[in-house]
């Protein structure tokens, strides 16, 4: 399932929303009503119907457990059809401020999440030069560093240095696990986070607009590349500092954001 994630939503928020929609569809099926009707139904009425369904399913399941022979897995039948747990997962986190393509895996496809997470990705990014952020993005504490505006030629030369296979240190506010915990959680707690550099590939790094302090780029990268780290490294190379102010993922492998649904239209899938 392809979703165009809006700004302000975490990847987990999107997963939870879709899981809830699919659960409503399953409940609608058990109630013999259309999916869309279930989604559009008032909260009060829907809650009442869901509670009735859950109560009925529970009673039917209890009766079935009492009646079925030992060793045989049974169901409560059509009248007491229980709602099965719905598995939904994503294949690569997007930060809350970022937008764009999020691939969701549903049901048995969740087992293939890693396969999709390894695909190359394309991003549109906006970088603010002359300032740095404690988190590398607009959600952190912003500090002025330099009002020196690099020339267009200096920008182009800097971008060339970050094209190809490079060593990149993941940002401390990344989702990488350190001793079983997410790096960003440790960083938010004020704990020291040490992450080792890793090799990543920047297949292309195209300048699309530059009006100091805003620098806009489009880049195609290998899995595991952190665009906020790339933004900071570009700022350091230019000697003025930088942070990632906006990010949009437009492509994952052969999947494009143009084919994704906005979250407010996912209910109609």
Protein architecture, described:
It is a single chain. This protein is an alpha+beta fold and 269 residues long. It folds into two domains: 2-113 and 262-268, no CATH class; 120-252, Pseudouridine synthase. The protein is built from seven helices and 14 strands. The strands form three sheets. Strands 1, 2, 3, 4, 7, 10, 11, 12, 13 and 14 form a ten-stranded mixed beta sheet that branches. A hairpin with an 8-residue loop joins strand 2 and strand 3. The radius of gyration is 24 Å and the shape is elongated. The N and C termini lie close together (9 Å).
- According to DSSP, the number of beta strands is 14
CATH topology of the largest domain: Pseudouridine synthase
| Spatial gap, N to C terminus | 9 Å
- Proportion of beta-strand residues: 25-35%
What is the gyration radius calculated from CA atoms? 24 Å
User: What is the arithmetic mean of pLDDT?
Assistant: 82
Structural class by helix and strand composition: alpha+beta
Number of domains: 2
- Per CATH, the architecture of the largest domain is 2-Layer Sandwich
CATH class of the largest domain: Alpha Beta
Stretches where pLDDT falls below 50 for ≥5 residues? 60-80
Work out the helix count.
7
Helix content: 25-40%
**Main sheet summary:** 10 strands, mixed
Overall geometry comes to: elongated
Order of helices and strands: EHHHEEHEEEHEEEHEEHEEE
CATH superfamily of the largest domain: Pseudouridine synthase
